[in-house]
Write a structure and sequence with these properties.
The chain contains four helices and no strands. With about 110 residues, it is an all-alpha fold. The longest helix is centred in the N-terminal third of the chain and has 14 residues. The chain is rod-shaped and about 125 Å long. The relative contact order is 0.08.
Length: about 110
């Protein structure tokens, strides 16, 4: 059945799709619905209803909208202790040679 869709059906379809606000081109959606998604019987029923003058073609009741699911609350993190500051470690100067270190130790002991 390569007939164009009736003008009244087309206008109602484009208006309904445009009201949704999520489609860039509502006419493409209606064209795809008419030519690809609707069965021959459904198209014949629309054409017969339009020819009779009955514009209100019976369609399925819309599904009730459900409220969006709430995200589960995130568990609270346990309070953690901050690590204590490190105590300074007495270090020998890195620039002294091993010989200088030994001399300093011998002087400290009073042997030099």
């Amino acid at each position: 059945m390569p007939r164009r869709p009736p003008k009244s059906w087309w206008d109602r379809c484009v208006a309904a799709v445009a009201r949704g606000g999520k489609v860039i081109d509502p006419a493409k959606i209606c064209g795809a619905t008419w030519y690809k998604r609707m069965s021959e019987e459904a198209r014949a029923a629309v054409l017969a209803a339009v020819e009779k003058g009955n514009e209100q073609v019976r369609r399925a009741a819309p599904k009730p909208k459900r409220a969006p699911k709430r995200a589960a609350p995130k568990p609270k993190r346990a309070a953690t202790k901050r690590p204590a500051a490190r105590k300074p470690v007495a270090r020998k100067p890195a620039h002294q040679s091993r010989l200088q270190q030994l001399e300093a130790e011998l002087r400290a002991l009073g042997l030099l």
